[in-house]
From TrEMBL, chains A, B:
Family the UniProt entry places it in: Belongs to the PEP-utilizing enzyme family.
Top-level taxon: Archaea
Pyruvate phosphate dikinase AMP/ATP-binding domain mapped to chain residues: 21-58, 67-290, 302-351
Residue positions binding Mg(2+): 757, 781
Name this protein carries in UniProt: pyruvate, phosphate dikinase
Root EC class: transferase
Enzyme Commission identifier(s): 2.7.9.1
GO molecular function, one term: pyruvate, phosphate dikinase activity
PROSITE patterns tied to this protein: PEP_ENZYMES_2, PEP_ENZYMES_PHOS_SITE
InterPro entries: ATP_grasp_subdomain_1, PEP-util_enz_mobile_dom, PEP_util_AS, PEP_util_C, PEP_util_CS, Phosphohistidine_dom_sf, PPDK_AMP/ATP-bd, Pyruvate_phosphate_dikinase
Domain PEP-utilising enzyme mobile stretches: 419-500
Length: 890, 890
């Protein structure tokens, strides 16, 4: 026997697991039926039927028969008859396997026609209700089935109200509604349609319409935007109507089992008495709150409270419910897991774990890093009145308001006067760091997601919009222009690093604070995670934030900054322009006490925690001024000389020219074709040993001093850009000598290790591990070299297109490329730990704060990740989630 | 019983295998004894004894006893007595396991004293001979044992000659020699020494002195320079004296069994009658040639001819022999494998294989690639009169003479007038290629071994000296200055790319031609090797050279050149400065016919062979002029404008300024921080598909045309800089469409493949292989990215120091770094061939012509190497040698 496929399920034949077949709504109704909640009898036609229908244009064989069979079953259960004397009405509701709120269609009161209308009036004794139900059916049917624009129906209602001087929908009486119904039918005719009077026709056509709505334009767009597959189909639930519009003991409403905005425990509901369907959402009347229901229909209130608790216990999550009260009796029409704000997500998960409803692990698995992230940065509070100037790349999240400054010097000056400022530059360089450190946020015309400005901003946790190409920054005139708007120094702008937008003037900001519950959750995360979490921090101030956010040490303290700012950059430049070792040593000696002071501060701040200090990394030319600017100044001076006749001016111009020429020559000597792959990092440290020696002298001297204060500290000295084991060996030998010399009898304990940021370092990690106590993956450079991408060039030139065209699934500078870069990392961990079991391996690239990367690092056996101070909570959470996933996968 | 160690071996107790213990000389003497050649009786004290002596300061236990025992044995064999009536004299000769010619010491006539002198005169009846032997002993002993400078002894001989009016040493009679001996003894006293009269003391002290000579300064330096271990020690051979100074039927000489300069078969010898030891080499008398010996001492001549053949058959190589004839009897004092010129090496190995003395494989294993290499380039023929101007890096071997030109244009002009020129530039760029192609050689002030000039020079096979930092090239004045010498356009210079030196004026060159024997050897190599050998050639001219040198196809034809030169660069620049696709297409259409023409030529030349064409690789800004030069010109124009009052001049200046400004803006837009890792290769091809599409259109059109001529060709299209499989997939899809469109019904066969030059491509080679018919390793870029070195920057800044300090064993841009880059290559071969068994894998990086790299490529299973046309013979030889080694290792 060719047994027919089952296309139709009574609610009590389904359950919560059958979402794929019955849709979210159908399975929810089934599950509620099963656990004894009051659901109107009904049944669901499967998504399979929908797919078959969409493919063939016809209902699949047997589906309609099964539908009629189940309809008959419902007639039995309700004691009503579809199209009969005591007429059974039904709603036809769509419900896809994945929630697509508002995208799909529902038709209520199906089964009403001119004849059953009379029966309904007779059966209920409520003419107005019956007419109201009828006009709703005609209205919804016209909209859903025939695509007659809703506004035409609304216009008719409005015109009748005006004509008859009625204010609200509820003021319309039976005679008004009859007029409306007639006008609705005329509207059909005008549109070349006829409202089908045969109830079974209504049902069939409604089911077909809901099926078809799966392929409506808006549904397709929604799916594309939300990454939902096109081949899922929608189920259709046929539910016997219960009526919220049967008078003041009737109502319809929605309820959340907890507050979706704050997460506070307790029912959060809105309802309308004597109303049906979408009235609550439609906003025609102002819905009432839950406390009113307690007074108006106490029996319904009690049932809601009781059932909400049942539902939460059953689903173990906050539920979003649709309900109808018919003559005091409470019916559930839908339940689903409720959407909620980030803050509420965290509170609900934490509370439920405390209540014992879920485990701590489950709570953690519900809080995606993105949820936590939105809590951590101040956000623009839009009011529609903002004047948006443009949009660039959202380089560092959060928003900031301040006065425009165009130079680092001016930023510092403003900061002294306690003026908040936004540094605006064509692009930033090391020279701007000082200004950046005192600015609220940054805006640049050029550069990508990993340009200097972007990287520094994320490290500082300050908002940044970069690569705003519509912007024109004119440094000479100290102005910025967008279209025909020109702003100047001191003008106020707002930058939103979360969206990449920037605004004229001051826009209100909303500053979220990390909540109590989030802190609890993070404490749980700390207990569960295996992966350590450290911070990338270049200053004691950043280190303090890192500690506050739960970092267990500093994974990367760059020392570049210690050569910048104030006198230091002048000394550094003199050092670079020196022609001999004694001359270089003279300038390094000047820097030594300043650096000792910096390290002392740092060690004190990080008492009890490891601090990884990376020795000088950038090429020397980064400490020199911009070549083009020097050339321009030289041109101007020469021009001046051709015109001037003032002796003093001539003399001073010549003197300046001489200076500039010297700087220009040094720049020319040092400039490189590909500085990223040039004379920097340990290469510099090997050719000019005196620089690293000075740094180590400063570190060990500072460590000794702080140790003598009775503090326990754990300095770790890290060498950048190692690709050959011999590099590390030679540097280690030299530096150990200095360390021994400085520490004297009392040995200052320290570790010695290396960045792993060159592909060759991964390939030869077994040999390199012999010379290192620790490895730290520098995934920025490792990604650049593994892909052969210069990040600064790639972001502006082709990265967007690459991601847009799907050549790359995501930006590998944001999330580690597991297939390529990750493969090298795995190799390095394996080879490194094979050589030295105690080898400590971490990551300090920017990806260290990215959740997917944190999980990857946990999977391949890293000891810790190091992220920017503000990303620490994200990293802690991600590490815990990864540990839980690994445990679950076992 | 504590059996004593054997420290002393009679010659007949040793053999040729015992070089380690008996040294080269000792084992040679032993072997000759064994094969029945006439060797004076003697024995050898082992290197072990030497090491023990050097460590402890004393002879090891039993050594001296064994020595005396063997001495006694020799007394028996010779019938003479050491220190006795018929006195046995011996030579004490050093001999290390590895030949250190001239480094170690020998003392002759040991055993003579005032008393044995009398006995010797009596025994030989030759007073003069005995006295001559005695003065030689005293002289050598004083030099070797006491370090009394040789010149003092020479001074005494000279003064006696003057005093007694004698011209040559042979003119000195017995009475003269007695005076000399007395004066020698006085010289000892003056130096606080005494000549030991006791013969056994002489022997002991001589052995000690020879042992000690192992650690002399000059020996240590020699070992360091030649990479010989310090712990080998020297053996000491004690040989009973035979005397070449016993009259005119006696002689001493050296012989090669074949001519060490030409390799010609037949004895090549020099000798002196009535002479001893170093007289031949010392150059005091002019040695005679072998034909003279035939006349003077026929018995000796016959014996030499006969024995030479025996020795060659025995050693299977050309031998370098020392001999002495004593009263017509021929004695061998030493044999060793003879040093020879490159040309001779090849002739001897080939001849011996033809003679059946060795196998062809053995012949190939004797010819190192370096030997072959010296044959391939013209070399400076020094005469001591050259005026050396300076020294830079030896970037491309060979030497060239020509007139100085400073610009590409001038080079072309000179070339038209058939003037040979040397292009001198601060550094070269793509703009200079045209000029380079018509110059004899290049000289640059800046740049490293892989700078543009160096790479192009090697590709063109032209001599180049680059990075000559003492040079000052002044383009404005068109002059070059070194120290106080200034040369101008048209002045003649000679550059020697083999040594890195350059000279004023014309220095004679020696042009070697590849010899008949070399061609034979290479034919053998072709039969033995498994690895294919292709050439990197960018023009049909280069392709012709490649074919002549035995290339089996083109492994890399760069298409960059097709966008340069003449009109093309102007069109290309217009294309780059276009603002829209239609505009770009317009210019590409102009380039299309030119490129079709180029490809047609190329395919015709390479009929029957595969040609791999690489689509455009460099970033677009490389086709634009230098930014700094533009800025300078703009400045000059502005300056002019401030001064000028000539309207026409003002107008034209402004017009030019406008143009320059447009170019300047384009440069600014395109310039990159790290162009090597920027917007180039397939990235460009993906964002501007029209460029690659034009190229493929040209290739397929040309292929179709040449195929229609009845020629069989094998075009292969290669995509540069692929790191992600999707890149290749998308490009393949696009290009296949163009190819299909062009080829029409008659399909033009072609392969499609990719460079493997990005670490990620190696890591994901399994996926990339799905989209490729072939892989070609671009080891230049792969090395840059794996190490994180920009070659242009590294060579100038730290590479020399890295190699000098042993951080790197060699330059990884010359020879593939097996540990890092090689590891990635292995991975790519394995993964690639696992996906696609038929995948063709080769290498086209510059290292492809390096012997060690060729061997590595053979070992890891590549199908071919591709090298610059002039390196093809080297690659063929290296490939064969690698095949033989692998076979031998089995």
């Amino acid at each position: 026997m060719n047994r027919q496929k089952k296309y139709v399920y009574l609610f009590n034949e389904g359950n919560a697991e059958m979402t794929g077949l019955l849709g979210g709504k159908g399975s929810g109704l089934a599950e509620m039926s099963n656990i004894g909640l009051n659901v109107p009898p009904g049944f669901t036609i499967t998504t399979e039927a929908c797919i078959d229908f969409l493919n063939s244009g016809d209902f699949p064989e047997g589906m309609w028969d099964q539908t009629l069979e189940k309809l008959h079953e419902i007639e039995k259960r309700t004691g009503k008859k579809y199209g009969g004397e005591n007429p059974l009405l039904v709603s036809v509701r769509s419900g896809a396997p994945i929630s697509m709120p508002g995208m799909m269609d529902t038709i209520l009161n199906v089964g009403l026609n001119d004849s059953t209308l009379v029966s309904l009036i007779k059966a209920t004794g409520n003419e107005r209700f019956a007419l109201d139900s009828y006009r709703r059916l005609i209205q919804m049917f016209g909209d859903v089935v025939f695509g007659i624009d809703k506004s035409y129906f609304e216009d008719i209602i409005r015109s009748v109200k005006v004509e008859r001087n009625k204010k609200d929908d509820v003021d319309l009486d039976a005679s008004d509604l009859r007029v409306i119904i007639e006008k609705f039918k005329e509207l059909y005719i005008k549109n070349g349609k006829v409202f089908p009077l045969e109830p079974l026709d209504q049902l069939r056509i409604s089911v077909e319409a809901v099926f078809r709505s799966w392929n409506s334009e808006r549904a397709k767009v929604y799916r594309e935007l939300n990454g939902i597959q096109d081949n899922l189909g929608t189920a259709v639930s046929i539910v016997s109507m219960v009526f919220g519009n049967m008078g003041n003991d009737s109502a319809t409403g929605v309820a959340f089992t907890r507050d979706p905005n704050t997460g506070k425990k307790g029912i959060f509901a809105e309802y309308l008495t004597n109303a049906q369907g979408e009235d609550v959402v439609a906003g025609i009347r102002t819905p009432k709150e839950i406390e009113d229901l307690r007074n108006e229909i106490p029996s319904a209130y009690d049932e809601l409270i009781r059932s909400a608790s049942t539902l939460e216990k059953h689903y173990k999550d906050m539920q979003d419910i649709e309900f109808t009260v018919e003559k005091g009796i409470f019916y559930f029409l839908q339940t689903r897991t409720g959407k909620r704000s980030a803050k509420a997500s965290i509170k609900i998960a934490t509370d439920m774990a405390i209540e014992g409803l879920i485990t701590r692990e489950e709570a953690l698995m519900r809080i995606t890093p993105r949820i936590l992230d939105t809590l951590l940065h101040p956000q623009i509070k839009r009011n529609g009145k903002e004047v948006k100037l443009g949009k660039g790349l959202a380089a560092s999240p959060g928003a900031a308001v301040g006065m425009i400054v165009f130079t680092s010097e001016k930023a510092v000056e403003f900061a002294k006067e306690k003026k908040k400022c936004i540094l605006v530059r064509p692009e930033t360089t090391a020279d701007d760091v000082r200004g950046m450190s005192v600015s609220e946020g940054f805006l640049t015309q050029k550069g990508g997601m990993t340009s200097h400005a972007a990287v520094v901003a994320r490290a500082m946790g300050k908002p940044a919009v970069v690569g705003a190409e519509t912007l024109n920054v004119n440094l000479k005139e100290e102005s910025l222009t967008v279209g025909n708007i020109t702003l100047r120094e001191g003008d106020i702008v707002t930058v939103d690093g979360t969206s990449g937008e920037f605004y004229m003037g001051s826009v209100d900001l909303e500053v979220s604070k990390i909540t109590e519950e989030a802190l609890t959750l993070l404490e749980w995360a700390d207990k569960i995670r295996k992966l350590g979490v450290r911070a990338n921090a270049n200053t004691p101030e950043e280190a303090i934030i890192a500690r506050e956010n739960g970092a267990e040490g500093i994974g990367l303290a760059r020392t570049e900054r210690m050569f910048l700012g104030g006198d230091r950059i002048t000394i550094m430049r003199s050092m670079i322009m020196s022609n001999s070792l004694p001359e270089r040593l003279k300038y390094l000696d000047l820097l030594l006490p300043m650096q000792i002071h910096d390290f002392v501060e740092f060690f004190r701040t990080m008492e009890g925690y490891p601090v990884i200090i990376r020795l000088l990394d950038p090429p020397l030319h980064e400490f020199l001024p911009n070549k083009e600017e020097i050339m321009n100044e030289m041109f101007s001076l020469k021009l001046k000389l051709t015109k001037s006749s003032d002796n003093f001016e001539i003399d001073s111009s010549i003197a300046r020219l001489t200076d500039l020429n010297r700087i220009f020559q040094t720049i020319k000597n040092l400039e490189e074709f590909n500085p990223m792959l040039g004379f920097r990092g340990c290469r510099l440290g090997l050719i000019y040993p005196e620089i690293y020696e000075m740094q180590v002298r400063a570190i060990i001297t500072a460590a000794k001093r702080v140790t003598e204060e009775g503090k326990t500290i754990y300095p770790e000295i890290m060498i950048p850009l190692v690709g050959v084991d011999n590099e590390l060996r030679i540097i280690r030998e030299r530096l150990e000598k200095v360390a021994k010399e400085v520490s004297g009898k009392e040995k200052v304990p320290y570790k010695f290790g290396t960045m792993i940021e060159i592909p060759r370092a991964c390939l030869t990690a077994d040999k390199i591990a012999k010379e290192a106590d620790f490895f730290s993956f520098g995934t920025n450079d490792l990604t650049q070299m593994t892909f052969g991408y210069s990040r600064d060039d790639a972001e502006g030139k082709f990265m967007a297109a690459y991601i847009g065209e799907g050549i790359l699934p995501y930006d590998p500078f944001t999330t580690v490329d597991e297939e390529g870069v990750g493969e090298l990392m795995k190799m390095a961990v394996k080879k490194g730990k094979a050589t030295k079991k105690t080898l400590e391996v971490g990551i300090c690239g920017e990806q260290g704060g990215d959740p997917q990367t944190v999980e990857f690092c946990n999977r391949i056996g890293l000891d810790y990740v190091s992220a920017s101070p503000l990303r620490i909570p994200i990293a802690r959470l991600s590490a815990a989630r990864s540990a839980i996933k690994l445990e679950n996968d076992r």
